[in-house]
Amino acid sequence: MGLNCSAQENPQAPPSPNVARLGSYPDWSQLEKFQRTMTRSEFAWLLDHCYARNNKEYSGLIEVQYDRALIAKQSNHPGAGYFILWFKARAHDEGKAETYWRDTYVMNDVPANSHRPLQDVKIAIDPGHIGGDWVQWDDRHFALGVNTIEVREGEMTLRVAKILERDLTALGAIVQLTREDNNPVTALRPEQLSAEARNYLLRKRMIPSSKAIKSTTKKMFAISSEIRTRAEKVNQAFQPDLALCLHFNASPWGSRPSFRSDNHLHILINGCYSRWEISEDDTRFEMVRRILERIYYEELDLAKELAETMQDETRLPNFSYGGRSGKAICDNRYIWARNLLANRSFMCPVVFFEPYCMNHREVHARVQAGEYRGLREFDGVYKKNIYQEYADGVTAGLVNYFRRRR
Hints:
Elements: H1 40-51, E1 62-64, E2 68-72, E3 82-86, E4 122-127, E5 141-142, E6 151-152, H2 153-170, E7 174-177, H3 194-203, H4 210-238, E8 242-246, E9 265-269, H5 275-278, H6 281-293, H7 295-314, E10 335-337, H8 341-345, E11 350-355, H9 361-369, E12 376-378, E13 381-383, H10 386-405
Parallel strand pairs: 4-7, 4-8, 8-11, 9-10
Antiparallel strand pairs: 1-2, 2-3, 5-6, 9-11, 12-13
Helix pairs in contact: 1-6, 2-10, 3-4, 7-10
């Protein structure tokens, strides 16, 4: 059954909006500026090709009609009505699979400059996770072997971010990090979030057991509150041309950390929303906004350039999502669409990096070696330190992209 624009108000008190962890009900009027700016076929193509895992994921929440899209304002309350997005009229538009006439996302104008190819490009760098005394809150740390340095992803991403800040600035970019040290950016602390965690579980119709509350509290602190605070800095103060989210990967283990043979690379852009995510009112709003801003095109072009240079630097094979959390959206096997809070909440093109498996023996050895100068031998191959190699792959891709673009 299709959506009904004339749905009647529920005579009972409406339920609380269905929002993500620490999310808030969106202001749908912010989408009014996009009225008649996108054709039906482009909207439908972006929705199905990249943003939804498949069309069943948004059934009953978004209905694409001939001249408009009906978007539920509150998924658990039909009486809240629908946001009506009117499409741009285009002769002979229907039935085309590609958006050849698209008006692509436009960055701020940047002048050509052969000596400083990143001149005036504003780049936000988000070093994933947290380090220092806070590593226990996001579970991205482990120790393997005797007398070895503990692997801490939050500290490793900050090292890469500092190198990138130095190198990209030298090339003319205006760079801002979402965090400068190993402390959380958010002012909230876990003990302040337990009540909110319980309420969230109840809203989602889950049993608020002590274990579930503890787990949800950790996620609210280390992911929801932390990333939303970083997004406020990026969106309100810096307003960059693009954002780089830095991470390291790890292969799954059993009951305790162990070495694994996998070592690979992949790069993410925003997309592949599940039914659960699209049913959240704020997440659905953010997805539709990204579609209408046409950020997909810029993200994909950046990701293609960066995937090539990251592959050249790291010499890593591609990773493949075997389940449903990632979606292939082009013929480049290193690039996937996945919906994460960081690449959804930063209001600009976002490229999300996942190179190296930290529990691979060679990667672990390179982490132990630290930021050495020059080259060192690992398994018969001389290599840069892992942080410089990571940063060089990113830098080369950005230089190639902006030289071509200018």
